[in-house]
Amino acid sequence: MAARKQNSTYTSNEKYIVECDLTYAVNKIGGRWKILIISKLEKGKMRFGELKKEFPYITERMLTLQLRALEQDGLVKRTVYAEVPPRVEYELTEMAAAFGPIFQQLSEWGGKHRKSVN
Amino acid sequence: MAARKQNSTYTSNEKYIVECDLTYAVNKIGGRWKILIISKLEKGKMRFGELKKEFPYITERMLTLQLRALEQDGLVKRTVYAEVPPRVEYELTEMAAAFGPIFQQLSEWGGKHRKSVN
DNA sequence: TGGGGTACTAACAAAAGTGTAAGTAATGGC
DNA sequence: GCCATTACTTACACTTTTGTTAGTACCCCA
Prior knowledge:
Chains A, B: Keywords: DNA-binding, Transcription, Transcription regulation. Chains A, B: This is HxlR family transcriptional regulator. Chain A is mainly alpha-helical. Chain A has a domain at 32-96: Orthogonal Bundle (Arc Repressor Mutant, subunit A), CATH 1.10.10. Chain A is built from seven helices and three strands; from the N terminus they run αααβααββαα. Chain A has helices at 9-18, 21-28, 34-41, 48-54, 60-72, 94-97, 100-113; strands spanning 46-47, 76-81, 87-92. Chain A has a three-stranded antiparallel beta sheet with strand order 1-3-2. In chain A, a hairpin with a 5-residue loop joins strand 2 (76-81) and strand 3. The longest helix of chain A is centred in the C-terminal third of the chain and has 14 residues, at 100-113. Chain A is globular. The first copy, chain A, binds a DNA duplex through residues 2, 4-5, 8-10, 13, 31-32, 47-49, 52, 57, 59-65, 80, 83-88.
């Protein structure tokens, strides 16, 4: 999320890579927690604290960062209720819901092939 | 590929994450170049040098690393011919070929949604 | 003898990603 | 007044990923 140097090969490569629709899509769900978060949210709205409980070792910082990134990318909608203590709910956008069947297939792939290599 | 400390939260999380078939699958194709390499190889066998030319800014080191990882994961088959100068060919395994239709869909997702968010 | 071609490898450096630990605001209930 | 609750934020440290640069082996051919 931080500003990047604009002249590095790292950045050139990133630009090149994002031009491809496929890598563009994969980048959206990259990172350690995003796919897991999306999977959980497929079942419906969840509060920050509920999501946190789903992942035993995630830190609040990480969860916040990932949710913010997902929001930025238009995959998650964030609703804040003006209450105390605060209540914030997260839900998938249509765009993210479209990942459903794809995730299903990826998951099947994982299930089928994880045994074949040790 | 380097040895990791076995006691970090980073590692605990990784273990947890890999237990999920979905993230297991996504991890196989994670990283900057793997999907692109697989895409190219879908068209057929390629030599190291040919692959290199496909990606304007990839370094030899990166290409080697990614190919080795793919080989490790059983996604790519590497064939060395005993010639001078050396000739090495890479091709997808069945396991990797099974990604074909999934990549197709991800690519469509990318094409459809990249306009909606700037 | 020396250069060209191919597919690498090694040591190092920069960048990004992830985790740790502590602290914040707001308000209702005791 | 003080504490608990929730959803964060901040500053820092560590780990992994990616890139830079230089070098290797091998044999053929001029």
